[in-house]
Fold these 2 entries.
Entry 1:
Amino acid sequence: MHKFPTFSLTPCKTMLQTIPSTMKAQDKDRVSCYFTKVGRNANLERLQYNYLFPEISERELRHIKKYPNAKVISLGIGDTTEPIPEIIASSMANYARSLSTPQGYKGYGAEQGNKDLRKAVAETFYKDMGIKDSEVFISDGSQCDISRLQMLFGSNVSIAVQDPSFPAYIDTGVITGQTGDYEKGSGRYQNIAYMECGPENNFFPDLPKTDRTDIIFFCSPNNPTGHASSREQLEQLVEFAQQNGSIIVYDSAYAVYITDGPRSIYEIPGARKVAIEVSSFSKIAGFTGVRLGWTVVPKELVYSNGFPVINDFNRIVCTCFNGASNIAQAGGLACLSSDGFKAVLSNVNYYKENAEILMNTFTSLGLRVYGGVNAPYVWVHFPGSNSWDVFNEILEKTHIITVPGSGFGPGGREFIRVTAFSHRENILEASERLRSFLS
Amino acid sequence: MSVIIHQNLSTSISSSTSTFLGHNNLKSIKCSNVSIPGRISGVIKCVATPSAEKTAYKTKVSRNENMGKLQAGYLFPEIARRRAAHMLKYPDAQVISLGIGDTTEPIPEVITSAMAKRSYALSTVEGYTGYGAEQGEKQLRAAIAKTYYENLGIEEDDIFVSDGAKSDISRLQVLFGSKVTMAVQDPSYPAYVDSSVILGQTGQFQKDVEKYGNIEYMKCTPENGFFPDLSAIRRTDIIFFCSPNNPTGYAASREQLTRLVEFAKENGSIIVFDSAYALYISDDNPRSIFEIPGAKEVSMEVSSFSKYAGFTGVRLGWTAIPKELLYSDGFPVAKDFNRIVCTCFNGASNIAQAGGLACVSPEGIKAMHEVVGFYKENTDIIVETFNSLGFKVYGGKNAPYVWIYFPGQSSWDVFSEILEKTHVVTTPGSGFGPGGEGFIRVSAFGHRENVLEACRRFKQLYK
């Protein structure tokens, strides 16, 4: 496995090197190598590498430096590229302006989110699923929600993740102290149940072979594989959770990309008793920078002692958070208006068309391609290869940034993730280059 | 309770049932012990229905025991609840909120127009931006460093822009982990203690002293001039220190902060310095911990646009971590915080950041100064009122909070009395820790007419 660069652990040496030799020892301003007596958090020490996406960013920057004239195309980090529809942007602008008026000014909002927005989320995404607005918690995005959920669960729970999966589940698990050490051989942290998802099992875990854990992180449509679980598969998952008394954290950030199939875990009977759902406006509305998402915690979800999970999550939200930006929430409300939703879905379709183009490109080159139909990611198989090598080669020869599959877990080692988030002309140009290079 | 009708079974009616259903659809009963009117052909067996708790599905996931240690809800939602209940009770009363420190005055136009502009830009091809740097937009980081830390050796890349101090405090606790010990002022902003409990740094709550085990509470009272007696404080890894202080309003002097830094240095501790109210300082007390020599090796600073620009709902703040701040093994704290920020966060809203940039423009700074000045005038009015009524009044000079002493009284009782008799919401001092008992915090965030009216009512009540 490719080794990421590690930080220098001897900052003092660097500092000492800059001390002018003319400084006297008793000089008050002497730069000394003072260490506090506070022990570094062992959980952070346990993390092996940088978080995946800043690492990809760094490599992109290095590549651009190396080839200043190359037109680098970023199909790596899943960052939206198309402008936010005007109807939504203007509602945020209007809201911002109203904050300058006595009648429009708002201070602290409810930590759980604006009431109208919570209602709109419940009605838009969970109609007829029995999810009430009081079970919806508006946030500043899934990455933050995942962390807050980990704080909620604490260090004494065991977790299962899909392999491969969005790195935040594992990394926050390590940070929270739920895992053991990293094993270089297997590329896995101890005490996490890795549920392999690959072509062999149609990207759905072999549940009978999976150890019981307290928490199961499950992302569908999946980042990075693009697989959207079928109703039957999700029924199996809910049953598995029920049998084991586990809690599913269901990440549905890409649900609107589904062409066909369940979008919410709550479409499955019984899910309200076993699942939390996390979602986001990032990939729906291009809100990756605006920051808005939500988490659903049904009232029926209770701990082994009968205590409702929602009560504790509410406490976390009130203590460790202070609500999503009111301007972002105004934007969210506009997104869920009839016109707003139509407008954002038009962007979603644009990215889906991108995904189709990429899929066709790779397929025409004789490669096995997965995903792309129900998600904005294409998961390309390079059997027998090391994904970092493939990543490097693609970058070097075509100036296209992708993401090596092993960044998502050992199960991704022979795969490359290509994102469909880009301007159309870049997708087409990238396809051309890939065709030339890989044929 | 449910009624189960068994055909042809003889049984007696359970004596534990307390109610009995009506005669609907009942035929005569044949029952050995009780004769019951009606026409039931089978036998009614009354059983107490198992409560919902016993039959409802429970997962096998244990509740996080740290959450179980928390005593009650977070303080400010509780104040909000009481306010709401009071408004229901007195629908015609004009309730005035001087409780939760929530800003009330509109955001200066120079700042909101920047946010409006950025919002529009996001709908254009050239102006659209997706994910921002998790540490914050470069320009804003540089501007914060220049505005607040010029000549203090804090640079652009030491600044981490956030969605506010409350979130930062929690992320710092995640950074430190469960194995550190911490000290807080008593009284103090409740988020330090509560986040510490959640992260597993503390023991159980001890009802007799109203303190959590394993936290060092540094008493700040009139007797010690609202600065802790450091000689009596046990060593802890982390020291949370807020100055100007919420709730007491006290701003530590240069001499006091120098002693604090020395104390931290001797003990190898890390100070988390909360400077959210720094711009409210009237005199020449330090506004940043980094004004103290040697502070960079022992402290980090958390701050916020909430109380300067009315950004309580917009959500924007920052944490400054010097490069010189190192763990016991020499590893830079900033590097681990960066990892936290990249993994557990995804940056403050780009629109809020555009507002932040406008805040620290020359025009924005001037505008914020005016807003702060307005609230300081409110504070003067409140201080003057309680002084004239003969109370011992603290704070108010360097902070938007007035800390009033009600000797020998329970602060929740005083809170309730004030609410009941004047329809003014305040905050009971004990909500901030046992050291707050006997005090009431009055916030100066309010429309001028409300502050004046509230003071009129206080004068009525306490004349």
Entry 2:
Amino acid sequence: MRRHLLGWRIALRLARRDLLKHRARAIIALVMVTLPVLAVVTADILIQTADVSPTEGISRRLGAVATAEVQIFEGRQRVTQGPDPLRDWVAGDELSRATTFADVEGVIGHRSKLAAPTSSELVVRTPHGREAVAAEQADVTAPLARGFYRLDGGRWPAASDEVVVNQAMRDRGVGDTLTIVDRDGTESSRTIVGTIVDATRRSGEVVVGLPGTLPRLTDDGMGQGWLVDGPPLTWSQVQRLNDLGVLVTDRHIASHPDDYPDSMDDGSGDSTTLQVAALIVVMALIEVVLLAGPAFAVGARKQQRSLALLVASGGTPAQARRVILAGGLLLGVAAAVIGVAGGIGAAWLLQPVVQRFNASWLGPFDVPWPHLVAVAAFGLASAVIACVVPAWIASRQNVVAVLAGRRGDAKPTRAFPVLGVVLFGIGVLMAIAGASGRGDLMVAWSAVVCVLGMVLLVPVVVSWVARAAGRFPLPVRFAARDAVRHRTRTTPAVAAVAATVAGVVALGISTSSDEKQNRESYTPNLVMGDASVTPDYGYLDPRPDRPTDWDQVADVVREHAPAARVSPVVGVGQTSTTSWVNVVFADPARTAEDEQISPSSSSSALGTDVVVSDGAQLPSLVASYFSADEGVAETLSAGRAVVLTSDASQTRLDQVAIHVETSDDDGPTVSTPAVTVPATVLYRPDDDVAPLRAILPPSVARRAGVPAATVALDVAQPHLTTEAQKDLQAALQDLPTPAGVYVERGYQADAYTRIVQWVLAALGAILMLGGTLTAMFLALSDARPDLATLAAVGAAPRTRRRVAAAYTFVVSFVGAVLGMLVGFVPGLAVTWPLTAEGYSGSDHVGPYIEIPWLMIAVVVLGLPLLTAVVVGLFTRSRLPMVARVG
Amino acid sequence: MNAPETRPVLELAQVTRIHGAGGLAVHALREVSFETYAGELVAVMGPSGSGKSTLLTLAGGLDQPTSGRVLVEGTDLTAVGSAERAKLRRTSIGYVFQDFNLIPALTAGENVSLPLELDGVPTRAARAAASTALGELGIADLADRFPDEMSGGQQQRVAIARAVVGDRRLILADEPTGALDSVTGEDILRLLRARCDAGAAGVLVTHEPRHAAWADRVVFLRDGAVVDEAGEPMAAVRS
Ligand SMILES: Nc1ncnc2c1ncn2[C@@H]1O[C@H](COP(=O)(O)OP(=O)(O)OP(=O)(O)O)[C@@H](O)[C@H]1O
Ligand SMILES: [Mg+2]
């Protein structure tokens, strides 16, 4: 044991001295391990900070003082809840009578209580018009209400005509008086007496008034909650209250969810989460090990004479190995310490930036020590693992050869490439298994196996490249040969690039394919960029009993979007709010059989599903929905109706029977007699979502007794930003007959997905550059003696640049090509679990596969060329004149 | 003064070392036999490529003969495992090479105490032994210097100190003066001679007949075979 420790002491001493002596190399290795640790620590702290934990969130819901909130469920049913009713509760048997607060006090004793703040929507008038904002009502100055709002200026409301608002509300330009619009459209005003900061909302508008002073336009149907003080409730009290139909949010219980039973058990997610975490750790470990690998490999090579002397002095191979491992250990510890400390600092500095992009308030600065210990261990482990292969090679070197001044590399083992092929094969099989039903996690693990297989194959590929390089000019030949000679350095560098590219390609294919699925299963309501304006009464009740004043609406639209072409859409409108009109199309020969002519599904973004038009000016969506050879405009101008059907056999009809049904809640009330009109019936397959069911020329509409009126405005190319849309909406809501605007912005990639994609792309590029450039620097310093020899035989100074550029290109290009091939396996495989299952009922079964060729070209060809050129331009061109020994 | 002991410190018996195989086979040594006793310094001479270095690596157990036996203090190196041979290098055999003998990351003192520390001797005791060894060679003041802060001659003295520290009895020196000027070279040989006189057995590979004069005996190698073995060569040269 003692002897063992002694062995490590020498190893650590040697390693420490070596690192201090070769600082540049040590720093490269250190950076490679430190940066990931730092990045993960920073991200972890920021995520933990942004995440509002149960303990932190409870103060936002109970304020600073209350012990618990009890809420008598309006449904008059027993309930079963978990520790936090916000997360899980279910209703059960009905109760014989409504529970009162006295019943609650029967369980928890008499306590001070306060009506909990209620939340609802509220319509207010701003300079832009009418807008819906969040409203809360609470007795804000009561002791139990402490902690819900912070007064930032002014004072608390004291009367029913006073409110306080947050900064976001002030930013809508409301001044000191707030005009509130009640359900019936009547307006009343409140004085804004202060500015508050809400505990949760940061960027949304909030108005706070005393209880009962603001109209409640929405209601969650849960009933009034009561904040109570006093001692914490026990779990048995919670259960007794549940039996009375009362939900309980107790500060202590809700913030210790693990100590109490859930109402439903969902232990299923855990193993998946664990697997995903393991997967991420393994992949990151592989990447970091590969990135740090070259520096350690060069370090080990530089120490080979020392190690040979150590063996000549009686050291065992194990002792030699330990020297290299000790280097990894020291760097690993340094990286862990620096990374964690730096990460905490970086997170502290970045906190305000994250807050700016977050609509809710972040929680308190949270340093999750157990995570950080794990991340630090990860850093240490990756540094040590990065040393394992160099250490193993160093202990197997031919001591005699090294002492004689020759290279003492043991012959590369033939077994490794074979193992590489086998692993790769297993990886492909796993990917196939994952694609055919074992799921995306299996595919992800297959990526790990493929990458490991590839790492073992890199030396073989590099030696092929070197063999092929014989025909190329000197710098390329030199670089390729050097790459093979220094296999221990080249292999991890190439593999690091390859692993990165594999990840980028795999994720690129999967996200592109996923997005393709979303894009293709998205049905636009309008032509891209167009808008429609339809009646929208908001919370107005009762609704105005007169038809929408379209001229007024059009004026407002033109004012906000001067460039837009605004045209009315005429169609079958609803004449009353209590009944509705349906136009029925049928085969004139078979009207008795109740068989209608209709497409299988239709949307009505235009405010109607039966448009009336003479074909001269069809709404743009309608015009673009039909192909030119269907001749819709001509058909209409010839006085014929256009009717869509999902039954191909009906297209033979050249006239249809039309009648109009008017129904109310009790069923059909009036039906006009059927009128047969000339028509063209067009077929639409089942999976088509048509924007309408039929178009009638005005003459036909009149003859069939179809009530035609303006139902919407077709607003072509209004060029509205989302901000301008918000203002237009507010203005339209403010009209006597309010309307709403919809703007077709096409398929919107999820902002989150897009951010993830960008971060991944940037990370990939950085990793690739990092891997390539460190390998290049190490290669250049290794190549000093050779370059000196080149100089001695008359090579031009720029040779050094060219060698550097060529080496960079060889490493990154070979890596990128390998990585691309490897990345295709999981990338393609994962599209099955990801996109093959459409939403239920959909006929289209994937997989959707989209390969982002442009991105792949940039990564595989562009980045290597760019790096090589940059390296070629910026490397010092002076050749070393003296070969340094050692 | 060559009172031969009953058992040689180093004994090579019919040692053959062939590198490679078939047509490319190189016979580095052919059936070489010789002995070295305590207190004796044997010089090995011969043209370049004649197998001198090979002989030393076999004697030190860094390499294994194709056939024949190598015995160090009675232990057959060909019969024991590599761990046992490493142990012998820590306790019985000391090497001195032509140059770059010292580990650059260690001070002179640490270089000298290295074999002892590798053997598990507590650091303090190992250091004490090292400074004794350095003192005996007259370079105690160099103990805390790093190799790149010393001259070539100083480095070779440290290497000799390391080769003898811990009472090791077999010193294998492969052209220890090759990188030194002649005066310094003579100094080194004088030290080597002194160690052998103090009871060690030494094998000195050299090109220089003048250096061979320090030896008790000269073994001539040519093409891997011993061609001549001369006792007391040019004894007069030695003063
Ligand atoms: N690993 C090896 N593979 C093949 N041949 C080798 C190897 N090591 C040594 N040799 C050959 O063995 C022979 C003896 O080499 P050795 O190094 O012992 O010679 P030497 O007498 O020390 O020469 P020098 O005076 O030049 O140092 C030489 O022909 C050499 O080419
Ligand atoms: Mg030699």
